[in-house]
Amino acid sequence: MYASQEDIGYDFGDDLKVGSKPVKPNPNIDGGWAWMIVLSSFLVHILIMGSQMALGILNMEWLEEFNQSRGLTAWVSSLSMGITLIVGPFIGLFISMCGCRTTAIIGGILNALGWILSAYASNVHYLFLTFGVTAGIGSGMVYLPAVVMVGQYFQKRRALAQGLSTTGTGFGAFLMTALLKYLCTEFGWRNAMFIQGAISLNLCVCGALMRPLSPKDLREKCVVRSDSEENRAKALSHSTETIKSNGVLSEEPGKKEEAANEEVLGSVQHTEIGGKSGSGRSMYGLRILKRVSQLTVTVRKGFALWYSSYFGAASLFTNRVFVAFIIWALFAYSSFVIPFIHLPEIVKQYNLSRQDNVFPLTSIIAIVHIFGKVILGIISDLPCISTWNVFLMANFTLVTCILTLPLMQTYVGLAVVCALIGFSSGYFSLMPVVTEDLVGTKHLANAYGIIICANGISALFGPPFAGWIYDITQKYDFSFYIAGLLYMVGIIFLLIQPCIQKKQPREKSTEEAQV
To answer: Where are the transmembrane segments (predicted)?
Structure first.
């Protein structure tokens, strides 16, 4: 039988029952430093996702420079986009061990290194390693912390905060498209990538702004959770409650292990205090031992949380709606990425380069994408509106546009469809909110890591598949049709699974009544 919300608390078990004393909300939740986190995440989306949305410019330069097939060359962009997202589950392990701030700073250095090394590429395969793998892993190490930190700092205005931060993708696609065009024209694509690598070092600054909340602050955030948001999550709560109740049951061994680790640290501290009269060298050794012990405790706790999320009793995969969400993510992202990578080629094929140079179609998607994220975020935060329903409606609109785009062969027709693609794809800002409603704040990093991993697989194979279809048919039409149909399959999974979950409790209650 499913546990109730009252029985399981909200991800943190019995620690939240603080008695009759009212919990004073942290001023940084939904305000204060929370807006600096939004700014940091906004800049991360500009520098990472915005740059990746502008890779169509570099893709054309690589086709001309290396004279390889469109399918092979598209793998460079796909690897970068795909690996950024595919490494999500492993970045979740880094976050559990080191925290968001350290993970993001290391990722910023790795991303910049990937861009700079790519400036010296001698062939496409070299770009696979430097740009696809190195820059891709670095991007993933910054992107996931940027999303998770916004989820931790906001409760009442989560959808709006995620919407504002992720508008950086739209701004970035618009700015980076113009910047890379200018840099490639003035300095060549190699120097353009070198300069972009230097700009990417600003990701380290964004990471430094990700000040972590204390466990006490996270508990307070959960205690003050509004009733309206609990009602909003009810449609998805049955399988969520199962995973949360499992999580609480599996916390006891972890607490015992934590107590044992604290005893070890206490004995080290006692030895250090008692040995103050000893030599300086032995004191230095004790301090090193204490540091190593603390690091070991942190790593073991982080790994335990990561492992339990995927393989333990509280595995996220026991949540059937979440599994349906993963299946949807496997098909969804390529439908958004394919137009960005191949639109410049489609424009050239239809002899629309003159109009596109005045106002690029990718820029139309990027600009409207900004408004889509903010508007959908504001609508979703209304107490009478379900985030889940807004999310589904936006998906239906996007898949319709993907299936319609090949039918448009004029600039005006393509511009209208691109504008609708930009607005409806604003549902990306709702993905962390829906994920948090499904699994809770505690499991958000690991759960969202799985979702963006599925998106990454979609982004990895989508553009090369479209390029391969073009090499065979000399048209992009079939690429959009197949991507749209697969996307529709993912949406059907999202529609079916919640209905199944609603029926199961009724069936169980009927059986109990008969007994």
So the answer is: 33-55, 75-95, 102-120, 126-148, 160-180, 192-210, 321-341, 361-379, 386-405, 411-434, 446-466, 478-496
**231-288: per-residue pLDDT in tens?**
444 444 444 444 344 443 344 444 444 454 555 455 545 554 555 444 566 676 677 7
The answer to whether residue 23 is domain-embedded is no
* Other beta carbons less than 10 A from residue 196's beta carbon: 24
Segments forming the whole domain that contains residue 413: 315-503
Structure confidence at residue 109 (pLDDT): 95
Distance (Å, whole) CA 215 – CA 69: 52
Burial of 323 (0-12, 13-18, 19+ CB in 10 A): middle
User: Which amino acid type is present at position 162?
Assistant: Q
Closest CA to 463 of 371, 353, 373, 346: 346
Q: Is 229 exposed, middle or buried (0-12, 13-18, 19+ CB in 10 A)?
A: middle
With contact defined as beta carbons under 8 Å apart, do 328 and 383 qualify?
Answer: no
Residues 6+ away with beta carbon under 8 Å from 271: 286
Q: How many domains does the chain have?
A: 2
39 and 187 together in one domain: yes
Answer yes or no: are the C-beta atoms of 379 and 166 closer than 8 Å: no
Model confidence pLDDT, tens digit, residues 173-198: 878 888 998 999 899 999 999 999 99
